[in-house]
Amino acid sequence: MASLILMMNNTGYCSESFNSLQSATSDEDMVEIAGATLDFSSTDDVPPLDRDHGAGIGNGLKEAPKLMDFLDEPLPGVGTYEDFNTIDWVREKSKDRDRHREIASQSKESTWALMKSISDAFSGWLLMLFVGLMSGALAGGIDISAHWMTDLKEGVCLSAFWFNHEHCCWNSNENTFQERDKCPKWKSWAELIIGSNDGPFAYIMNYVMYVCWALLFSFLAVSLVRAFAPYACGSGIPEIKTILSGFIIRGYLGKWTLMIKTITLVLAVSSGLSLGKEGPLVHVACCCGNILCHLFTKYRKNEAKRREVLSAAAAVGVSVAFGAPIGGVLFSLEEVSYYFPLKTLWRSFFAALVAAFTLRSINPFGNSRLVLFYVEFHSPWHLVELVPFVLLGIFGGIWGAFFIRANIMWCRRRKTTRLGHYPVLEVLVVTAVTAVLAFPNSYTRMSTSELISELFNDCGLLDSSQLCNYANVSDIERGSNALPDRPASHDVYTAMWQLALALVFKMLITVVTFGMKVPSGLFIPSMAVGAIAGRLLGVGMEQLAYYHHDWVLFRGWCSPGADCITPGLYAMVGAAACLGGVTRMTVSLVVIMFELTGGLEYIVPLMAATMTSKWVADALGREGIYEAHIRLNGYPFLEPKEEFSHKTLAMDVMRPRRSDPPLSVITQDGMSVEEVETLITDTSYSGFPVVVSHESQRLVGFVLRRDLVISIENARQRQDGVVSTSQIFFTEYTPPQLPSSPSPLKLRGILDLSPFTVTDHTAMDIVVDIFRKLGLRQCLVTHNGRLLGIITKKDILKHMAQIANRDPDSILFN
């Protein structure tokens, strides 16, 4: 990053050139992220051939009048970006340095200016406090609502309908320890409608009500998303990654998206679909960060600064999703952030801390924990167990690669066939299939978070789960809650068959669920698949150790009557392996799982399974699920982890190609307003190089299309005498004009005098590196100072797609 800042400091951007510009402040366009305004005015880089016009002032010529230069007066919209375009990181960082220099110089002049300087320095921490508080409060509300509505599919609490099953029974003094899952105050729908919960008719009634509630919740979710906030669907993490890399998607982090995503996330999770709320919570937290940025000028008006806030907000999202503040910070650093300076690390840490504290204060699960599946293990693991842990890693990698290919294939089919025209019908059909198949199996009927909690659980004397109903429990001393390895009973074998069926069901249904037009996270379904596989392997190892404790494999550390194998630990390792296989997370994933268990001694098994999972998945396919969805949607995302190893030159990638028409350029003088407007109308380019003349093609600078359009429109309204035949000048000095000529238009203030350039023989791996590290939108190609062409981010992505034998036209945006 130090090299990045050094390069930015040497780009020749003028100082004090951004102070008089404004930005759009509509909350609706939260990611227009339209703040920045640009004036690249400088007097040091002016070509000497501008300066000899004054020599010709004489008879028949009038001295150039004082022209309006937009360097001096703010123009709303100049320097902002259009939707589905990429920001210029170098320009934004330069603007922030200019603002900081001005504040620092003014702080020495008066006490009031000093107070403003202190307030400006403190505003970042204050914003992080607000983001943490707001995100934590929303996450607590989502957790409580989803828990209640999930239980509503099965029954209702008579004493207080807003209580879920667990809270309802807590307040009851009538239920016994043996029947603690049943209490008089909680009534199933069969009991309410037909007065009995026994018999086939009652079962059918509960079945029908379960499916009806699931269909109602999913219908409300998809209808709200479709009607009010189309961007509220999906996980949100692929788009967040793209936005953090500098792309603009207007409205993606707006008020409506936040409100609808929060409501529909509760509905989607409660419907029983195979999805989680953890990914969407990252989107929700980023919406909070983006909305709160409007309270502070330096974040509202600067794209790069706002993305620092969004990086911290992504950490907050994971912090409240898993109750893992440190894991959240590492997730933002490893997985989603494009630019992550050290101060963003500190602020992310603070915001994640505040969010976790807020969620802990709300206590959504009533157990003083931040997540439903917090667990503590009491038995250490043995070195021999690394073998099954590595096997779980291999399974996680294979599952991850299979899931990504199958899901992308299904999503592409949704995009290219009539299936995509009926999102509501698709959601209802998938919900109906999920509910009908899930209800008969108790492990698929319960919410996925509860399933993971049960699979992670280390069986004790007080557990009533079917998974813990081993034989000979009555013969065990009840002096402690820990139990030795013991033979599996009929109930345990039944549970194993149910879990095996649940594994197949979850693996298949998650493929078609992720990517539908409802909020859908992938963390929890992936963890559920791994946890089921891990628990099955764990119980198998436990029974192997019990019946064959004299084998060399177990001799010396697993004696009869000892608690050797912890199946819950295998479930946790399997969950980490499958999530790592799908997302390719490593460090952050291990830390998140460690924070979930609170046990340092289980880090090595988690690391072994996670790394194995990543190696296996990378061998079968290089992309994680989020990168695959970014590519599927055609977003211009230059993956920092992907290496460019081909020997091509800038001249091979630049436009125009040999068969293309010549490059569209603007001369620094001699073009009329009408000619420039015709050029803008006839092309769709984001900007134009400015040259000395068409003959010399000597490069002067670069001007953005949006700035040009806004400046000409404003000049027609505010400057007298500007007509279609008026000359446009980008020179420092305006040449003398004939008395009869219309007023000229000076637009030097919007000209970037120091655009990035490379020569035509620059290796493409260096060009790609420059684009990645500096966040460029475009780069001009020259030969001996003459302009030859231009390379945009889209050109690079198309070139990389061609090399990888992919369709280059899949890159839709620049």
UniProtKB/TrEMBL annotation:
It is found in: Endosome membrane; Membrane. Pfam families: CBS (PF00571), Voltage_CLC (PF00654). It comes from the Eukaryota. The chain crosses the membrane at residues 122-142, 207-232, 253-275, 281-297, 309-333, 386-408, 420-439, 495-516, 528-549, 569-594. SMART domains: CBS. Keywords: Antiport, ATP-binding, CBS domain, Chloride, Endosome, Ion transport, Membrane, Nucleotide-binding, Repeat, Transmembrane, Transmembrane helix, Transport. GO terms for molecular function: antiporter activity; ATP binding; voltage-gated chloride channel activity. It is a multi-pass membrane protein. One of its GO terms (cellular component) is plasma membrane. Residues 654-718, 750-808 form the CBS domain. PANTHER family: CHLORIDE CHANNEL PROTEIN, H(+)_CL(-) EXCHANGE TRANSPORTER 5. Belongs to the chloride channel (TC 2.A.49) family. This is Chloride channel protein.
